[in-house]
């Protein structure tokens, strides 16, 4: 059963789906120097607005945009929901931890329930008023691709005919900033994926939701399609809590798994949306993986130089940008890249293409590896 994408909702530091896409094609970046918390030093961040976003309102906004784009209205009682997040509603938990002790346990419980990590999935399900399956995956930076893969499987297995799938991240919190800073992972000036002078990642916020439907019901209602999900690969190596496994064995296995499930060979891939975090280890390992699996060369870019690293949502944004690339026959540039360290076919400026198949990669903490293949609608 073919699974097609009939709608996309997206928010990033560049704006909504259309604004983000145009910004990417023009090689603009949404990264600026911000100081959202006065007790922390200013950092380059990719914020949607001057103040950090809140998870639930951001989720509702993106879901509504996706449904509108797909030509669907509310309620959708039979629509599955797979909405993940790596940080979940951590911002609310941090706010709660700073409150004075509440003697009324009922108030404390009510406040605590708002901090649950599956808050985005709950918000989406409530908005749709659905009675279908509701899932909330969490797999570090691989969350977005994992969510889309689960939505794809819900349709392929016959459990649903329609699913909204993706990930949302409102990750700009004091604890997140301090944690990445203590690791030495944060950039000081900006995000420069695969560059010899890359400094580290720049945290961003946002998310993307794809409306997935069986090709049959999409055709029956005359829906437009961006393309189709061809297959996916998911592995975990457990090598280290944060560092990637040096030989990338499990990551390579995830890509091969994705290609085999999609009935594709490396020669069939026209574009790779790389994870490309701008950290030393990730970019080196990912570049070597691409060189090993695609020796004949394939166009590559990372969009994190424009949107920042949206952590668990990054794979969902990447999948959306792949679909836009296929639809508009344009490959987005690797924003921030000036002097490549690696011998790959990096997209330096927007490139016209007749691409038919794209891969999107995500590699997360704890050895979470994900790849998803997207293609033009065969219909």
Automatic annotation (TrEMBL):
InterPro entries: Beta-ketoacyl_synthase (IPR000794), Ketoacyl_synth_C (IPR014031), Ketoacyl_synth_N (IPR014030), PKS_Beta-ketoAc_synthase_dom (IPR020841), Thiolase-like (IPR016039)
Enzyme class: transferase
Domain (Ketosynthase family 3 (KS3)) ranges: 1-376
GO BP, sorted A to Z: fatty acid biosynthetic process
UniProt-listed Enzyme Commission number(s): 2.3.1.41
Any Pfam family matching the protein: ketoacyl-synt
GO molecular function: 3-oxoacyl-[acyl-carrier-protein] synthase activity
NCBIfam families: PRK05952.1
Family: Belongs to the thiolase-like superfamily. Beta-ketoacyl-ACP synthases family.
Name used for this protein in its record: 3-oxoacyl-ACP synthase
């Amino acid at each position: 059963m073919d699974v097609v994408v009939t709608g996309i909702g997206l928010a990033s530091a560049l704006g909504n789906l259309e604004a983000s896409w145009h910004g990417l094609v023009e090689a603009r970046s949404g990264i600026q120097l911000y100081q959202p918390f006065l007790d922390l030093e200013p950092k380059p961040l990719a914020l949607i607005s001057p103040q950090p976003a809140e998870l639930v309102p951001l989720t509702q906004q993106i879901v509504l945009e996706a449904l509108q784009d797909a030509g669907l209205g509310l309620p959708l009682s039979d629509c599955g929901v797979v909405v993940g997040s790596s940080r979940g509603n951590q911002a609310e938990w941090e706010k709660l931890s700073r409150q004075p002790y509440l003697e009324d346990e009922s108030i404390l419980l009510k406040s605590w329930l708002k901090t649950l990590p599956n808050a985005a999935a709950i918000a989406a399900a409530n908005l749709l008023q659905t009675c279908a399956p509701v899932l909330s995956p969490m797999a570090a930076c691989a969350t977005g691709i994992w969510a889309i893969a689960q939505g794809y499987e819900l349709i392929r297995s016959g459990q649903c005919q329609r699913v909204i799938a993706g990930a949302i991240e409102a990750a700009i919190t004091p604890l997140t900033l301090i944690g990445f800073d203590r690791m030495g992972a944060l950039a000081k000036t900006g995000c420069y994926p695969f560059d010899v002078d890359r400094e580290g990642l720049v945290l961003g916020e946002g998310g993307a939701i794809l409306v997935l439907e069986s090709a049959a019901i999409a055709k029956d209602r005359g829906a437009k399609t961006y393309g189709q999900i061809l297959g996916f690969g998911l592995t975990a190596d457990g090598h280290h809590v944060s560092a990637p496994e040096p030989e990338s064995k499990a990551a390579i296995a995830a890509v091969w798994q994705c290609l085999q499930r999609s009935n594709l060979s490396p020669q069939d891939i026209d574009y790779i949306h790389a994870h490309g975090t701008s950290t030393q280890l990730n970019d080196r390992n990912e570049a070597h993986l691409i060189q090993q699996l695609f020796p004949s060369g394939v166009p590559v870019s990372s969009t994190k130089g424009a949107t920042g690293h949206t952590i668990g949502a990054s794979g969902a944004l990447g999948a959306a940008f792949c679909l836009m690339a296929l639809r508009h026959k344009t490959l987005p540039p690797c924003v921030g890249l000036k002097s490549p360290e690696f011998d790959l076919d990096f997209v330096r400026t927007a490139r016209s293409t007749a691409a038919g198949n794209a891969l999107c990669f995500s590699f997360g903490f704890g050895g979470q590896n994900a790849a998803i293949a997207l293609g033009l609608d065969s219909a």
